[in-house]
Design goal:
alpha/beta, 13 helices, elongated
Length: about 400
């Protein structure tokens, strides 16, 4: 293991210090004994939950949208549980591994937190979840979709993790099947993120398995601003379709700069839901018009009247329609957690006792939970969602017109 002197990043030093000085977790408090420790909540004191989401930067809409879903779910239960006020401590994971590490380290320092909601992004999950599980905090994922997070080979660092968001194995396969409706050749472009690399690999495998040909596989950096050299290389192959699961900043540069590459004039573009946000429209401007994205089908006729009521509440509470595609996952994440808490929490003389191992097992045992996004049942690896996909398309480049269902609108 590296020494503290070898690590220069302050967050890394704090994280390593935490991981090398962990207390024994098995303990008995009041009527509860638990191998991973017991959270004791005195009478009148709050039940505390942690959360780490992308709350600043180009991709902040992902986390803000999910946070609003969590807050609406909190309102639904009256922000209390068995006489204890519920408090949620939010940290910013900036949609990056570094941000995920820092946010998780801060949360892990608070032993009174019962569990954690989040993160938004897969890179933040890869970095942050192991820190939290070292301290035996169960984590209910709100937005991370990388297949590696629930892969059998992921290792024990993710034994405390489930997600109500979807697995991009399914997203990549849906995107490939959709692409093959009009494309025989495709190129792929990712930004090196955990999310981007994994969904591209799935797309490529499925596209080829169904008879298509991948003619170019390229990558850019998440902070690159000039994508023209990469796009020019792709353009020499003249693919029928470019599959580019990028985040907001890189996605905006892509749609603006592809217009300058002659070889891409007849190439269709297919993106994914991280760019379904007003920030993308602001950055891309008129180049956003007609851009298609694979994402969850959030129409009321698909998700039902409960979702329509939720959207009305969202608009009333925040003065605008949902700003990204993760509001319902935030709502469901808190719902799944509270249902699990209700199964394992023990009351005695006004105090509340929650065993962390018991809570983690109860979360993983979630079955048939009626969420906004459908009926949620977690498998042994932590995948709980059963998503229904759609293809969306921007109809305007005006961020003020953003509204799921109209701009972008569902087209397939």
């Amino acid at each position: 293991m590296a020494s503290l002197a070898m690590i220069k990043h302050p967050a890394a030093i704090v994280a390593l210090a935490l991981l090398t000085a962990l207390p024994a977790r098995a303990e008995t408090k009041g009527p509860v004994t638990d191998d991973n420790g017991v959270v004791e909540i005195p009478e009148g004191e709050p039940l505390m939950i942690g959360s780490f989401l992308a709350l600043t930067g180009a991709d902040a809409a992902l986390g803000i949208d999910a946070r609003r879903g969590i807050e609406i779910a909190l309102d639904r239960v009256g922000a209390t549980y068995k006489g204890h006020p519920i408090e949620i401590s939010f940290e910013d994971e900036t949609c990056s591994p570094e941000g995920g590490q820092t946010a998780a380290t801060r949360l892990a320092s608070n032993d009174q937190l019962v569990a954690i909601l989040g993160p938004s992004c897969s890179g933040a999950a890869r970095a942050g979840v192991p820190i939290l599980w070292q301290h035996k905090f169960p984590v209910v994922g709100v937005g991370p979709t990388s297949p590696t997070l629930t892969d059998p080979a992921r290792g024990p660092d993710f034994d405390g993790f489930v997600r109500v968001s979807f697995n991009d194995n399914a997203t990549g396969k849906f995107a490939a099947s959709y692409a093959l409706n009009g494309a025989k050749t495709a190129a792929t472009l990712h930004d090196g993120s955990t999310y981007g690399q994994q969904i591209v690999r799935t797309f490529e495998a499925e596209f080829k398995a169904q008879g298509g040909t991948i003619v170019a596989e390229e990558a850019v950096g998440p902070t690159d601003t000039d994508l023209r050299p990469v796009l020019t290389r792709i353009g020499t192959k003249k693919p029928d379709l470019l599959f580019a699961p990028l985040y907001v900043a890189a996605g905006a540069y892509l749609v603006r700069q592809r217009e300058e590459v002659d070889g891409l004039k007849n190439t269709k573009l297919l993106a994914t839901d991280p760019i379904m946000a007003p920030a993308f429209m602001t950055a891309a401007g008129k180049a956003a018009v007609d851009v298609k994205m694979v994402g969850i089908d959030f129409r009321p006729e698909t998700l039902g009247p409960a979702y329509q009521k939720f959207v009305e509440t969202y608009k009333s509470k925040y003065g605008e329609a949902p700003i990204a595609g993760f509001h319902a996952y935030g709502y469901d994440a808190l719902g799944v957690l509270m249902a699990a808490i209700d199964k394992v929490a023990v009351e005695k003389d006004g105090e509340l006792f929650i065993g962390r191992d018991a809570l983690n097992k109860a979360i993983h045992a979630t079955a048939g939970y009626e969420g906004l996004t459908g009926k949620l049942t977690c498998d042994h690896l932590g995948d709980c969602a059963s998503p229904v996909y759609a293809v969306w398309q921007f109809t305007s480049g005006d961020a003020a017109s953003y509204s799921l269902g109209t701009n972008p609108k569902r087209v397939d």
